[in-house]
Amino acid sequence: MSKKPERAYLDSMVFIFGRLEECNSRLVLFLAQLGEFEVVTSELILEEVERFFRENFSREAGYLARKYVEELSFRIIKRSDINAEKSLLMGKIKGKDLENVATVKHENLKYLVAYDKDYGEAGVKEYITPKEFVKLFNLKPYDKEY
Amino acid sequence: MTEEKLLVRLSGTAAEVLNELVRRGYFATKSEAIRAGILRLGESFGLFKSSMHYWRELGEEIKKTGKKMTHEEILEALKKLEQEA
Questions:
Q1: pLDDT computed for residue A2 by the predictor
Q2: Which range is most confident: A35-39, A127-131, A138-142?
Q3: DSSP bridge pairs for A40
Q4: Burial grade of A100 (CB within 10 A; 0-12, 13-18, 19 or more)
Q5: Closest residue of chain B to A58, computed from CA coordinates
Q6: d(CA B71, CA B64)
Q7: Highest-confidence segment of A16-30, A89-103, B45-59
Q8: Of A53, A63, A107, B11, which alpha carbon lies 20 to 30 A from B55's?
Q9: DSSP letter assigned to residue B26
């Protein structure tokens, strides 16, 4: 039997889809809420999730979404902590994904949970879809990847 | 992260409720049920607001706005978010 993950970095899409749709991202969030694994995020994730809910719903929704991510996170990595990793990855990883991958490397994490084929194409070995991540906990996932 | 390892002896009603919570499938294990119970206790005494609190509040706020996003709209908004980052 495969060992359950202990820590994982969650991309903003996990928080966004997880709150808005019945999907594997929601299962990932529920597993985190139950303390099944520790969530690692970054300043970027906080900003993106807050902005998404503020711009698409309301200012209050943005605030609540940010608080949700903060409370769920075991660690929130600061931008200033990942400069070395960012320099190493520059040119190898698309700009939009750079901070996320740099944070994963900085924290030596085994899993980056997201649904973005760019991670796969860039050969990010830590990349895993919500569907595959849920399976690691022996749960039956929804058919969709996210 | 603080860690506590406890050996808890339960009997009577507490043990029965715990067994029932797992038997009915609300929790996968007894440890999980105890963990959730402690957090709920802390929340009800106002020691902290859990992620679940904000999860529920966010759900209510989304409902209040009356806005619904289709899957395609979410994808579009995510793309915009990435471009602006």
A1: 60
A2: A127-131
A3: A9, A75
A4: buried
A5: B65
A6: 20
A7: A16-30
A8: A107
A9: S
Give pTM, 2 decimals.
Answer: 0.81
- Would an 8 Å CB–CB cutoff place B77 in contact with chain A? yes
H or E element, residue A10:
strand A7-10
**3-class DSSP assignment, residue B4:** coil
Residue A94 burial (CB count, 10 A): 14
Q: How far apart are CA A8 and CA B38, in angstroms?
A: 24
Is it the case that residue B1 has pLDDT exceeding 70? no
Tokens of A111: 């899993």
Q: Which two tokens stand for residue B40?
A: 């709920």
* Angle between the N-to-C axes of helices B51-65 and A59-72, in degrees from 0 to 180, rounded to the nearest 10: 160
pLDDT tens for residues B22-36? 999 988 899 989 988
Looking at chain A from residue 88 to 117, which residues have their Cβ under 8 Å from any Cβ of chain B?
Answer: 96
Radius of gyration of chain B (CA): 20
Which residues on neighbouring strands pair with residue A112, listed in sequence order?
A9, A127
B20 to chain A nearest CA, in Å? 18
The mean of the pLDDT values for chain A is 94
Residue A72, both tokens: 């769920």
- Give the H or E element holding residue A9: strand A7-10
* Residue B49 sits at the chain A interface (C-beta within 8 Å): yes
